[in-house]
Amino acid sequence: MNTTDPRDRAAATSSPPRRVEFYRHSLTEADIDAAAAVLRSVFLTTGPRAATFEKEFASFLGVQHVVTTSSCTSALFLSLAALGLGPDDEVITTPMTFVATANAILHTGAKVRFVDVEPDTGNIDVDRVAEAINPDTRVVLPVHLYGLMADVEGLADLCRQRSLILIEDAAHAAEARRDGIRPGQRGQAACFSFYATKNLTCGEGGAVATDDPAMADALRRLRSHGLSKEAANRYTERYHHWDMLELGYKANLSDIQAALLLGQLPRLEAQRQRRDALARQYEEAFAELPDVCFPVVPRGADSARHLFTIWVPPARRDRTLAELQERGIGIAVNYRAVHLLTYYQRQLGLPRGSFPNAERIGDSTLTLPLYPSMTDDEQQQVIDTVRAVVATWAPSRNVVAFSGAAG
Ligand SMILES: Cc1ncc(COP(=O)(O)O)c(C=O)c1O
After folding, report:
1. Mind listing the pLDDT tens digit for each residue in 226-276?
2. Is the model's pTM score more than 0.85?
């Protein structure tokens, strides 16, 4: 390269832009040592570490019982299975979620009834739930999208009036509060995910929180083949014959994973506060950008701030996604509306237009990097890159932004 031109020299010496990862976990050496200690012990599967985590997570949430599971998907499925749902039953849920929510319903044999979401939060709309209730409805299953709790008070009132059961998908919302209420405090059960990118993670894992001791007992049996004794009891006590009481599943969490989770509990709130500060900085930075909106966090809600999404005009979304990735920014899409995915199209055949708010969010959304170890410099790089890409958008009359917080 001819380096006589100063611009060429600058180009030759400057390094390519750093990549900003979509997510980096915050596991510490102490967490890893705790897992290693389990590996050096005799007992690896669900045992004392899982029991301690269940107790401590229950106390963190302010609920009576936590039952750990292999994933949030299994937590949702087992919660519904514990209610004895079957083909005559229907569960009302949101199409603005990860497929796990709806899949867990279908695996019980029950029917999924989607209803639309609020346009400004993406959470299930309580009025639409009320309209959709019919004689087959047994359960209402909201998702606390991105970490903002759905209107659980409204949903709990509705469920009480109509004799329905409320199960919360709290995969995004371990640290969330709304009007002082936490996941699991109004619902019959709340289901959590400890998947690789979640705020509280052990790679793969989940849990159900409930105040109902009978439900907790049923979940412990169902996660372990329906056996009368789990492995820990079989190990710590002298051998006694165990029995199989019902047809269960295999969906327990190991002590190795529980050890990773335990050490994270004391720092969850500090990490949430860091994500909250980052999310507010994003909101401030994008407030002036035309055609860019983001979901609202209503007064009285402390969002767990699991994901930070922006909503761009649908005609721009995929190109913006590609450009941000090309410029080194880790991006995801949470979520495209579930009823439009091929399998659900085949099963339910719900045409476009069925749930306009969920569809609009699904066509517009981009998730930006957000995690406690993200530095201010990394965030600035994301902000600058989003601004630079938005600046390349040609003016167009048929791209319409929609309601959400201002941009
Ligand atoms: C809203 C929601 N529900 C359920 C799940 C399923 O969680 P898991 O991967 O732990 O089964 C996820 C996972 O990303 C999710 O985002």
Report:
1. 999 877 776 677 788 899 999 999 999 999 999 999 999 999 999 999 999
2. yes
109 CA to middle of ligand 1, Å?
20
Residues 169, 97: contact at Cβ < 8 Å? Answer: yes
Q: Which one of 68, 94, 143, 193 would you pick to mutate in the ligand 1 pocket, going by the greatest count of ligand atoms within 8 A of its CB?
A: 193
pLDDT digits (tens, 9 = 90+) for 300-341: 999 999 999 999 999 999 999 999 999 999 999 999 999 999
